[in-house]
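REQUEST FORM: STRUCTURE PREDICTION
Request ID: SP-0412
Submitted by: Lab K.M.
Chain count: 1
Length (residues): 135
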Amino acid sequence: MTDTPQGPPAKAVIFLYRPLVATKARLDWAEFYARQRATEQNLRIGHVIVADHIEAGIQKLHNALRQMDAAVVITPNLDHVGGSPVVVTKFAELLTVKPAGRFRWAAGEDAARQTRLTLALQPFRYSGIPDGGDA
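STATUS: Completed
RESULT:
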């Protein structure tokens, strides 16, 4: 135990792409699991964005993060952000629920290129969240 005071948890935004969570039940489960991931990482959810179109949703996400002074996005999987973390890591850190992943904020195009290269060299492991209520 330390005597150092701890500040409030960092803020995060949940991002969900509506076509992948088409029913109210799946949307609720996806948000529930994203909130669990936030709790595991000691993050406080400031906003939940449910987007009908990825591009417009990413712009709304970027604006929400700036407005809240937050730097973390949580999403069920990479499919919710178009299949690659690069679109988000240009301006924030990205956490995925399933599989549990962390993609660091890539400051600048060189870092974004490195992220794309790293993903290209990894075996394919990103799949949709299975049906059956896992969100």
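NOTES: The two ends are 36 Å apart (CA to CA).
Reviewed by: T.R.
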